[in-house]
Amino acid sequence: MPRAHLSFGLRVLLLLVTAATTTLIGCSAVSQQPQRASSSQTPPPPAAAPQSIKDTLDRPTSDPYTGELSIFEYADRDRKLQIERVMDLLGIKAGTAVADIGAGSGWFTARAARRVGPGGSVYAVEINPQYVKHIEARAAKEKLSNVRAVLGREDDPQLPPQSVDAVLMLKTYHEIEQPIRVLTNLRRSMRAGARLGIIDRNGKGDDHGVDRAAVVREAEQAGFALVEEHDFVKPDGMDYFLVFQADTKVTS
Ligand SMILES: C[S@@+](CC[C@H](N)C(=O)[O-])C[C@H]1O[C@@H](n2cnc3c(N)ncnc32)[C@H](O)[C@@H]1O
Questions:
Q1: What whole-number distance in Å separates Cα of residue 124 and Cα of residue 101?
Q2: Torsion from C-alpha of 214, 241, 152, 246, nearest 10 degrees
Q3: Is it true that domain 69-246 has CATH number 3.40.50.150?
Q4: CB-side exposure of 100: number of CA atoms within 13 Å?
Q5: How far apart are CA 143 and CA 150, in angstroms?
Q6: Most CB atoms within 10 A, among 46, 67, 198, 202?
Q7: What digits encode the pLDDT tens for the residues 44-73?
Q8: How far lies 67's CA from each of 72, 81, 122, 210, 241, in Å?
Q9: C-beta neighbour count of 89 within 10 angstroms
């Protein structure tokens, strides 16, 4: 074959080989692009942040009481509830700061205010504005200048951080629509070593009671640990008095 033909054929062959090689390299580069992109660029955000501890309820609650406040003032309530003993167990003494969550008529607020004296204070927290007014008027009438009535939110008692040494929820927990949120906010208002007492009655949630086990579980979700349990508040096997403290292992 003439040299010119050979070199033309060779050139064509070379061109074909070059084109094929380029295509192959190109394919290879394209197929590698996603890998490069993923290794050299900012990593994508995690698929979904792990859900924080569930803080909403999937059990029923009772409607907040809106009736006549005199029902909380019956004659032998102090004796039946052994309220002095309750206050002892919560460490309520002269000079301490106390919160009464779901204060109603201010029945417990007034007793706590007398015990803590002028050097202490009691936050009477209510979501019902009329009850807040009632407590303010009562405190003025009974000359309890250490009482501060607070209009709380359904999910937040609205207390200052690190402001209380003891908290009582007296026959209120079963009405709280978002107890885990309330307790989480409350924990931030409690000073180191502060105690939270919950007095309620076993029930289904919407029958003016709530199971003790549900309260313990929800309090733990909110960062509390059960430290004591008593049944003297009404020795009928239905009512319970639970005492919690902030779980020191929980930091949020
Ligand atoms: C059954 S009454 C008990 C009143 C009082 N603790 C007593 O035993 O004399 C419950 C009260 O809790 C209040 N309450 C319900 N949910 C609340 C919440 N999330 N924060 C504050 N108070 C609440 C209601 O308005 C009602 O006055």
A1: 6
A2: -80
A3: yes
A4: 27
A5: 18
A6: 198
A7: 444 444 445 678 888 999 999 999 999 999
A8: 10, 22, 23, 20, 25
A9: 17
Short-list 104, 139, 105, CA closest to 122 = 139
Please report the atom of ligand 1 found closest to the CA of residue 182: 19
Residue in the structure block whose two tokens are 């309620």: 200
Q: 243 pairs with which residues across the strands?
A: 197, 228
The position carrying tokens 């060779």 is 10
Q: Which two tokens stand for residue 122?
A: 């009691």
Q: How far apart are CA 69 and CA 106, in angstroms?
A: 9
Distance 32 CA to ligand 1 centre (A): 64
pLDDT tens per residue across span 160-171: 999 999 999 999
Q: What is the pLDDT of residue 101?
A: 99
Name the β-bridge partners of 127.
none
Using the predicted structure, report yes or no on whether residue 221 has a pLDDT greater than 80: yes
Strands 239-246 and 224-230: antiparallel
CA distances from 167 to 43, 97, 115, 183, 224 (A): 47, 9, 14, 11, 13
Q: Which amino acid is at 208?
A: H
Ligand 1, pocket residues at CB < 6 Å:
64-65, 72, 101-105, 107, 125-128, 131, 152, 154, 170-172, 175-176, 182
Cα–Cα dist 112/87, whole Å: 8
Residue bearing the bigger pLDDT, 46 or 133:
133
Beta-bridge mates of residue 40: none
